[in-house]
Amino acid sequence: MPGDHRRIRGPEESQPPQLYAADEGEAPAARDPTRLRPVYARAGLLSQAKGSAYLEAGGTKVLCAVSGPRQVEGGERGGGPAGAGGEAPAALRGRLLCDFRRAPFAGRRRRAPPGGGEERELALALQEALEPAVRLGRYPRAQLEVSALLLEDGGSALAAALTAAALALADAGVEMYDLVVGCGLSRAPEPAPTWLLDPTRLEEERAAAGLTVALMPVLNQVAGLLGSGEGGPTESWAEAVRLGLEGCQRLYPVLQQCLVRAARRRGAAAPP
Amino acid sequence: SHSIPVRSSETEDLRVDGRGCEDYRCVEVETDVVSNTSGSARVKLGHTDILVGVKAEMGTPKLEKPNEGYLEFFVDCSANATPEFEGRGGDDLGTEIANTLYRIFNNKSSIDLKSLCISPREHCWVLYVDVLLLECGGNLFDAISIAVKAALFNTRIPRVRVLEDEEGSKDIELSDDPYDCIRLSVENVPCIVTLCKIGYRHVVDATLQEEACSLASLLVSVTSKGVVTCMRKVGKGSLDPESIFEMMETGKRVGKVLHTSLQSVLHKEESLGPKRQKVGFLG
Q1: Which end of chain B is more exposed for a tag (fewer CB within 10 A), N or C?
Q2: Can you give the residue ranges of the Exoribonuclease phosphorolytic domain (chain B) (predicted)?
């Protein structure tokens, strides 16, 4: 503010004090590489959204909401052969719009929204993983909006967001071929480069490479895959993908139970 | 052990333009095409035309990595490339490609960032890699990664010295000789190989028509030693786990061949020296 002499002006840039702290040397505890953290999932908790889900795994907390389908002006979309099962032709199929947001207090450092490139990349990853599962042909000229909000990042944030988004879509009653389950992995640095399933934030920070897989468990199809880092040869990445897919299969019954409970709750709340 | 894929009569390793499933189109690479940059390269892969310029500027190192320089990527999808990029249409694709480039370079071995440090915590070299998409003819990621590698090979960063005088104030001195520069080692810079799933087979280097037929692709970033630095599934469809493993192996195999031919072309072009005939944009 120009000419404001009463307020003490702080520095323009601020950093958290941990940056200047001596390295704690806090190595993550040794653990079984295939352990999955216990998951708490609940669907149908937001009253204003068509479908919603909250997922908590270890320290990671994600809230996801779905709205739509909303009519959208398609622009010049021609005809074309109609899909099987009475679906709209390819040019008139519905669209899935995904948004991924991090709360400013989610990570170690405060990140003011808009987060820039990283959030756009994760939103695109969400969209690419959810599209194979949703029957967009049944929503011609419509748009479904999925927004994921990461409240706290305790490791495997993208995987948790994927799972929560799929639960929210199912809760909204959107027609889907299958649920999408996400699982995160990270590769510990040398020495002992093993792939760890469902890493915590500490393990992710020290990792040499990270991978997120999204699986449609019943169809056994990989809906999404995103990984980077010094993972090593292709055999190592293949082993990681297999481990991730196994983790997704193990997570599936928990999500089924969550949806059943939400449906029961909705049925009990409906007026007789 | 690999399972032999089911072959149908039309897809027996023969594509519309006569190539095999693992063949690239003819690639033309030319470096040092733009004079105002520290390094530049132009790559033509079929109808895809990419121009990359690298500018080295001095900046402050990032707080978490005080002894290293860094790279910044920017991708511009020009409206000339395809009519869909008119106005802001190309921004989403540009951000996607830039994010993928950040991802493939996001590890310790791709580029020696410590060599870009001038004085720890104070000065470092920042390489601004700007990619221009001039024409879109399919297989953008591969062409862009080849162009980025060629441009980094061509980059010449001037040598600077930090002089400290008696009062402790520092001064930066640029070397007088314009040819006194540091070169980057691009041995471990990865290249992207995109494998498109069409039917039961997967193809490398898809044209626009082939990309339209493919529902899902796997993008693998491989170094010359066969180390994979990034993997990403692209597209609206889903992939079978077995296909993913097959595609990774193909990607590694094709990537190694791509690297050896690119290295030999770049070294040959450099050995021609300043007297080589520059083709530029008129060829």
Answers
A1: N
A2: 24-158, 188-253
ipTM summary value: 0.86
Which residues, numbered 115 to 144 in chain A, qualify as contacts with chain B under a Cβ-Cβ cut-off of 8 Å? 117-118, 120-121, 124, 128-129, 131-133
| This prediction's pTM | 0.88
> How many CB atoms neighbour CB B106 within 10 A?
16
Q: What angle do CA B191, B196, B201 make, to 5 degrees?
A: 125
Q: Where are the beta strands (DSSP E) in B24-107?
A: 27-31, 39-45, 48-59, 70-77
Query: Quick one: what percent of chain A has pLDDT higher than 70?
Result: 89
- Return the structure tokens found at B5: 């894929």
From the candidates A162, A237, A242, A249, which should be mutated to test the interface with B, based on the most B CB atoms within 10 A?
A237
Task: Name the least confident of A40-49, A111-120, B206-215.
Answer: A111-120
In order of A96, A136, A139, B145, the CA distances from A87 in angstroms are 16, 8, 8, 38
In B, which residues are within 8 Å of A242 by CB distance? 241
- Is any Cβ of chain B less than 8 angstroms from the Cβ of A180? no
Q: Does A187 have pLDDT greater than 80?
A: yes
Lowest mean pLDDT among A17-26, A175-184, B4-13, B229-238: B4-13
Q: Quick one: tokens of A53?
A: 């889900």
pLDDT (mean) for A236-240: 92
Give the per-residue pLDDT at B84.
74
pLDDT of residue A233: 87
What is the predicted pLDDT for the residue at B65? 87
The vertex-B34 CA angle with B29 and B38, nearest 5°, equals 95
Say whether pLDDT at A75 is over 70. Answer: no
DSSP B165-227: -TTS-EEEEE-S-TT-EEE---TT--EEEEEEEETTEEEES--HHHHHH-SEEEEEEE-TTS-
CA-based nearest residue in chain A for residue B240: A221
pLDDT at position A206 over 90: no
Find out whether B21 and B15 touch, Cβ atoms under 8 Å.
yes
Whether A132 sits inside 8 A of B108 (CB atoms) is no
The tokens for B191 are: 């290249």
Rounded distance between C-alpha atoms, residue A39 and residue A25, angstroms: 29
**Residues with pLDDT less than 70, chain B:** 1-12, 168, 280-283
Q: Cβ separation of A120 and B99 shorter than 8 Å?
A: yes
Cα distance from B264 to chain A (closest Cα, Å)? Answer: 24
Q: Does A110 touch chain B (CB under 8 A)?
A: no
Using a CB-CB cut-off of 8 Å, the residues of chain A touching B102 are 117
Mean model confidence pLDDT for chain A: 87
